[in-house]
Design brief:
21 helices, mainly alpha, 5 strands, 5-stranded mixed β-sheet, single chain
Length: 528
Amino acid sequence: MNLIDPARPGAAPSARQLTLLLLAYFGAHLASRVLISDALELDEAEQALWTQQLAAGYGAQPPLYTWLQWGVFQLTGVSVFSLALLKNVLLALTYVFTWLAARRTLPAPLALLASASMLLIPHIGWESHRDLTHSVLVTTLAAATVLVTLRLLERPRPALYLLLGGVAGLGMLSKYSYAVLFVALALAALATREARAVLRSPWLAAGALVALLVVAPHAWWLLDHWQMASDRTLAKMDAQPGAVAGMVRGLGSLANALAGTLGVFALACVAVFGRDAWRARDARPRGAQCAWWLRYLAALAALLVAMVVLGGVTHVKGRWLQPLLCMAPLIWFGCRSDLAGHPRLRAWRRLLVVVAMVLLALLTLRPMADGWRGRPGDLNQPAAALARALGAEGYDGSGTIVASDRVMAGVLRTQFARAQVRVWSPGMSRPQIAGDVPLLLIGTAADADWLRDSAAALGLRGAAAEIDLPYRYSRDRQSHAQYRFVLGRAPQSSAPSVASAAHTSSTSGIVPACPKLAACGNQNGSAR
């Protein structure tokens, strides 16, 4: 099946030019994230916690992002830099894969624009930089899947079938919603006569086997923890099968998520191109690539509506659509190849440059603005100052830290890489803590009851102390961050057996120092 437009005027940017562009933009984002704050957002904090050990599963999310983050930590240390490095590399790869796919289907002047225009999808241009992890990875693998699929449809080869299977397996290990993308692509292929021959190849079974081998370790884990993973996923979707009111609410939520995902891009198209945004300038046929993408969109729409009507999904988040619609600019330009010589194309390029600079500036200034307004967020927490204050109080950075919430625990993990860090509340299964080691219990000033009950449950004796520190970027006389902690040594009786530790890891939300491939979930799960 030939998706290539034979009339591709102009020259595509060289690999060197694209590399320099990506290094400049994502290098600036990396530097910005490292410089603006040494504290963490929620998803970053969870990765700092989960990477204390390798496991086949982590709560309600597949493990691939955490495995990658663990590897980066081994190379560069546990730090904000390491967290931001992985994310920006993945985002850059998303643009690269999309550009490579666009080069196969679009006139050269539009290929780079089709990739760069993903900046106009808010969850890619903004939220992915602000605080997303698994959604970033699944979007990267969605772009890779599109690229491999287009190459396979253009010229089927055994290596591409195997590569598609590998990418599909990694996609399922990144986020379960990847399955929707893959099924939609498969349905689009089934609906295309020329593509059916690709699906009849015996090498497709070989590719499927590769995918199964890739997901096998996590699938085996998931069999033992299906209830935990599925319950949290269904809770996020607020699934209510069979309720008419729920269907209406679900369809409204889906429409709202679609508008939030594609609204900015659509408005920008109308603002720049006017009526030409939806009306072709000539009678040139749309071509095979446009027909292919329209079938994909039809299949995707059917799957999403089925999830609402048949599956009872009543709540759809915009970021869930990110990997499914990240190729929206590629689809639009693919169906509008006549725009290659449009006089407003230069204005579109300028718009993308302005948007990129504005997004970088806003992301950099966001914690500063929060601090100046007296509404500090997670990035305004005084992470390094807290670590220094705890050191001055006698904590040497070893042993075990038990924190009252995930964000604080993740922050302390980046500051005290030698310590084992847990999130725990009395009433949960007892955490795995080695005996006769330094033990630090810490929470905010509002966690006085938690601190008292935790200290009693863990057998830690000693008076609670307080630390009062100004928020990052705060003004004089604004409220301070207040912490309460108890520092002592863990009693010998606090170390449970290995069997108890394994039970703790799968049910309590602790992030324990568990054996390799143990089930080290987080009770609260990730909302991302």
